[in-house]
Structure formats: C-alpha cells, structure tokens
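hey can u run this one w/ flavin-adenine dinucleotide bound, need the structure tokens asap thx
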Amino acid sequence: MAERRYDVVVVGGGIVGLATARDLVLRRPGLRLAILEKEPEIGRHQTGHNSGVIHSGLYYAPGSLKARLCVEGCHATYRYCDKHGIPYDKAGKVVVATDENELPRLEELYRRGVANGVPGLELIGPERLRELEPHAVGIKAIYSPITGIVDWSRVARSYADDVREHGGEILTEHQVTAIRQKGDGVLLRTASGVVQCTFLVTCGGLHSDRLAMMSRAPRDLQIVPFRGDYYVLRPERRYLTRGMIYPVPDPAFPFLGVHFTRRINGDVWLGPNAVLAFAREGYGRLDANLRDNLDTFTYPGFWKLAAKYWQMGLEEMVRDFSKEAFVEACKRYVPEVTPDDCLPGPSGVRAQALDVDGKLVDDFIVQTSARIIHVRNAPSPAATSSLAIGRMIADATDRLIGEDPRRVTPGAQVSELADGEPVVARSPESGAAAAGDAGALGPADERLGSAPAAGREP
Ligand SMILES: Cc1cc2nc3c(=O)[nH]c(=O)nc-3n(C[C@H](O)[C@H](O)[C@H](O)COP(=O)(O)OP(=O)(O)OC[C@H]3O[C@@H](n4cnc5c(N)ncnc54)[C@H](O)[C@@H]3O)c2cc1C
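ok here u go:
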C-alpha cells in the first residue's frame, strides 16, 4: 500500500481527536491533516456511550484544566450547536443533599462553581427543589440552570464534517500499532499501511496509555476502564425527572454516583454506576479481555487503589448485579421510582487514568515533546470541553510547528517502518533521548495539563 504523508496526524476519531483536528484545519488552511481511527466509523467508544450532558463546570477545583476548559467548552458548545442547528436543551440540573453530613460538601461545590464562573448557580431549599423537580427530595441543593443535554455523537459527526470540508481526511480502519520518530518526522504503522507525518497528536481514549507507550512514554499513567450501566425509565414514568438530578459526589472517587438524566430524545436514564471493567471496550457485564486484564492487574497502582477502595468497589458491583440495590440508591433522590419503572439500558466504559501510587487522576493530562502530543487523560467532562481542549491542543501544535525550522512544509522523507523494528529512534536534533525524541516523554516534558486535586463529573 502506498505510503501517505501529512503535516499533522491525529490518532483517534473520538470527540477530542475530532475537535482537535477541526481546530487545526480551521486555523491553518492548506494543512495536510489526517485522523486515523481504528474502527469502521468515528465516535464508537466513549463519544458514543455517555450521558449526553453539557456540564457547566461546577465540580472542578478552581484553576484546574477541567474547571477552565469545561466552562469555556460549555459556552462554546451552545454557540456551536446554535450555528450548526444541533438540538440541545438547557434542561438544568440539581445536585441534591439528602443528609446533613453532605452539606459541607454541597456548599464547597457551590463555592467551586462560583469561583469557576459558572453562571446562574443557586443554593436552594426543599421548596425550590420541588418547584424544579417535583418528584425529587432533599434538604438542600445546588441548581445549575445552564447545564444542558445534547447528543454528543451528533456533535462529533458535525466536527467530522468540518474537518472534511476544510480539507482534512478521516481514515477509518487505521489502527495505529507502532509509532517511530526519526529526526524529521514520525512514522506510524497502521492496520492499513504506513502513514507518515511531521507532527502527531494522539487522542486514544481507552487506549491513550498504549499509544503513549508506543512512543516510549513511561508507564506512569495507566488507563483503568470503569464500566457504567444505565437503566432507562419506562416512557410513562418519564415525568419523574424534568432535567437532571445528581447526588453530592464522594470526594474520594472521581465519579458522580448514580444520577437521573433526561436525554435529548426525551428518554430518562438512571446511572451510570462505576465498576471495574474486565475489557476496555467491553460493554456487557461479562465481557473480558486477557490483554486488558493483564495490563490492569500488573500495574502496581491498581493494587494500591484496590487496597484503599475495595469495599466501595464491592458495593458498586452489588448494585451492578442487583437491580433492587441500584433502584434503592435512586430512591434516595426520587422515592417514587420502583424496579418496575426501570428497563435495562445501555452502558459505557470510562477511560480513567491511574497513577503508580494508586491515585485516580482527576484532571485532563496532555504531554508533549518536540513532535508528539499525547492526550493521556480525557475523562468526563471531555465531551463538554472538547472545543476548548481542541483549541488548547491546536495552540500547542502551533507552538511545536513554530519551533520547527521546517514548519509544515511537506514532511521530509523518513525511512520505512519495518515490522519488528524498535519503535523509537534517537533524535538527531537533540543528540540525546530528550525532547526531540518521541521516546522522551518523561519528567522533563512540558506538561500542558497537570493533575491537581480536581473535581469530578461523569
Ligand atoms: C458512561 C460515560 C458517561 C459520560 N458522560 C459524559 C457527559 O455527560 N458529558 C461529558 O462531557 N462527558 C461525558 N463522558 C466523558 C466523555 O464521553 C469522554 O470524556 C469523551 O468522549 C472522550 O473522548 P475521546 O475522544 O478522548 O475518547 P473516545 O471517544 O473513546 O475516542 C477515542 C478514539 O480513539 C480510537 N483509538 C484508540 N486507539 C487507537 C489506535 N491505536 N489507532 C487508531 N484509533 C484508536 C478509538 O477507537 C476511539 O474512537 C462520559 C463518559 C462515559 C464513559
């Protein structure tokens, strides 16, 4: 198969890769860009399996990337949907405390939201809660009127149209299996032949750690997949929820707990829970993948996490297999809901980065070297933040291009990637395994994103 050459290749046709590619082709007319996606179509994984919420930026630690990019992304999403005729609904959300013990956390969330510049937040009592959500109960709540709902798959398809209209290519069934850097370019081995580029951005979602490690980035962050299952309310009981009803999140865990979410098509989903998945792309309860499990169970950080949270994990697994236990958790917020109201629904798998110390990494993480940018952690609210993440990565790519004497003139010829060759080459520019080398992503990297104690939102 003929070798193809691009100025920039983006690996991953999820919403983050698409938004990044879109920003790049819009800001650089004539840029030769391709997205490589392993599946036959874009948006198959997290982008196509989520709650469909446009988050407001309420939860995240002020100053974190999540806080900044979610708030920016939320506004940008509404503007984008208006411009492109994509339906959305600012249905509004309540975060509900049902117990006195939750009040300090609820109030801290409110302070965070205000500090993050989320407009229109209100701390409300039970009466106002009943006005907004007549079937919900609680002693105090936060109301976020700008939280909305949208079909993120539809948004992603629209980004893809923008990419194509501006000259970018989307190559599906192009699973990247090896990355090799030479001084003047990057070679990618894919399931459909070799692709060459001058700059590479990887946005691999559930496989982001593997893509980073193909360029010899250290195994300091590993993706641990967490499956979440939803139930769907029977159509005749949809009136139980007008917008979105969320619990106060447990600060020890980066997921929000089971919530009620109205969908853009009128359905109401309950969930998702969060259980360790035995396959990164396993959407069924019994799906398992040997390689994925070996990766999880041989990662030292996993055992540290398990030692800390085994009890919580066990409770989540019980709720996963017992509809009654799941519905019991929901009844705390909407007492009228019964097991009969809940029909089995879809599921999603979250790509959650875990560090070697067993800490679930909250914030978005992006690592960059001279030619390669890896998105290492883009959990929720990355769909909401996608336009802002895309802008940030396109800015970073601009800086790399600016620092490169050859800019994006047609990528210089680099040698063929032969099967079985080591995937990393030393950079002749740096003379050492340093920033110019794809294998040099490490402590000396410029980290666009770091991992402060941020908040959470699935
Ligand atoms: C259950 C659940 C609920 C969520 N709810 C919300 C929500 O309500 N609001 C919100 O803002 N966010 C939500 N999120 C988070 C959001 O969906 C994700 O953060 C976002 O979709 C991440 O996008 P991505 O492009 O990074 O990953 P993905 O959508 O997973 O895309 C990554 C892509 O990379 C491709 N790929 C991987 N490896 C390779 C390779 N080697 N070669 C080529 N291609 C490759 C994959 O096939 C995939 O298409 C939720 C997530 C889940 C799982």
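DSSP finds ten helices and 21 strands in the chain. anyway lmk if its weird
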